[in-house]
Amino acid sequence: MKKFEVAVIPGDGIGKEVVPVSLKVLETVAEVHGGIKFDFQSFPWSSDYYVEHGKMMPDDGLKILKNFDSIFLGAIGNPALVQDHIALWGLLIKIRREFEQSINIRPAKYFKGLKSPLVNPNDFDLIVVRENSEGEYSEVGGRIHKGDDELAIQNAIFTKKGTERAMHYAFELAKKRRGHVTSATKSNGIFHSMPFWDEVFNEVKEEYQDVQTASYHIDALAAFFLTRPQIFDVIVASNLFGDILTDIGGAIMGSIGIAPAANINLNGKYPSMFEPVHGSAPDIVGKGIANPIGQIWTAKMMLDHFGEEELGSKLLDIIEDVTNDGIKTPDIGGTSSTEEVADEICRRLKKAVSV
Ligand code: NAD
Ligand code: IPM
Ligand code: MN
């Protein structure tokens, strides 16, 4: 019996709704598999925790998390209670940084039964490899002066190591897929970082003669996501470009509530963290209508990470079938609740494996 110890952080808002039902799905996966077991330990670290303790997690929070095989997180952010930059830098970004989760993998694909807003959504299937530890998300800078002279400075930091790492990851991934990597650049507009980004991309691609490449400015690339997403296989993007592209990725599938993500630690020193693309959705919290698919597909990415790809693919097929049969939440045109969608996925998992 293989046992996986998973730290669970439901976080804020709909994180508290989509995480519990996803754990039920994972329990069902373990049950039908028979040879794996999850040991979930839940932590209440969130904006509510901040209100009570003055911090997003205890001082030894990272020490506690370090011993787990992975972290399964919902979403962080409740601007009514805590300012976003405090909440996010105190938990989510802190974990990504301290645990060297340098790559964020974010797939988007045409999904049976989903009403994409695109005129021609047929069969797109792409993965954004988002650089996850540096770039535009830097603490370097600050606010100076007061009054009318006040200004804010934000420095982006692109290291050769970090940039190469993201690109190598993208090329290796493309070799296992359709052999194509697109670089998201802006060398016409972001003066120091993006010409550098292009240079590194051109160097790295020399090592992968069997992989085709393309390079588009991020503005044009964002438009291509809407007009012809089928041209993309793997896209490598900086931290902020990747962030924005992947909300578009969710939107062209039909809802941002579907898009999954995995923050990967490559050196094996720390756990990786699995959390969907979407946030805590304060506008729908408490209504029982949050789409659980983003979180459940994220659970599938965690299964892949644990080497359980076969069950992972089965789970994704079932998610797609359930959606196609109209059991879906209102954001994608259905009338089902968060629970109903997840329960149906569990029911079909049991059925599929018992036949
Ligand atoms: P959001 O992703 O929470 O919501 C954007 C829109 O998408 C909302 O209308 C929301 O209802 C809808 N939506 C999101 N997930 C959904 C789901 N599963 N089912 C149905 N509809 C869904 O983005 P936002 O409104 O910009 O941010 C809200 C809060 O979440 C902020 O505090 C923000 O900083 C935080 N946030 C956290 C994460 C994270 O923890 N990974 C990611 C993004 C935003
Ligand atoms: C995401 C989120 C975060 C990010 C925010 C909440 C800091 O938007 O995971 O996509 O920008 O990385
Ligand atoms: Mn985002």
Automatic annotation (TrEMBL):
EC code: 1.1.1.83
Entry-linked InterPro entries: ICDH/IPMDH, IsoCit/isopropylmalate_DH_CS, IsoPropMal-DH-like_dom, TTC_DH
Domain Isopropylmalate dehydrogenase-like, chain residue ranges per copy: 5-345
Signal peptide coordinates: none
Catalysed transformations (reactions): (R)-malate + NAD(+) = pyruvate + CO2 + NADH
SUPFAM superfamilies per UniProt: Isocitrate/Isopropylmalate dehydrogenase-like
Keyword match Electron transport: no
Keywords, sorted A to Z: Manganese, Metal-binding, NAD, Oxidoreductase
Protein's UniProt keywords contain 4Fe-4S: no
Family: Belongs to the isocitrate and isopropylmalate dehydrogenases family.
Descriptive protein name: D-malate dehydrogenase (decarboxylating)
Organism: Cytobacillus oceanisediminis
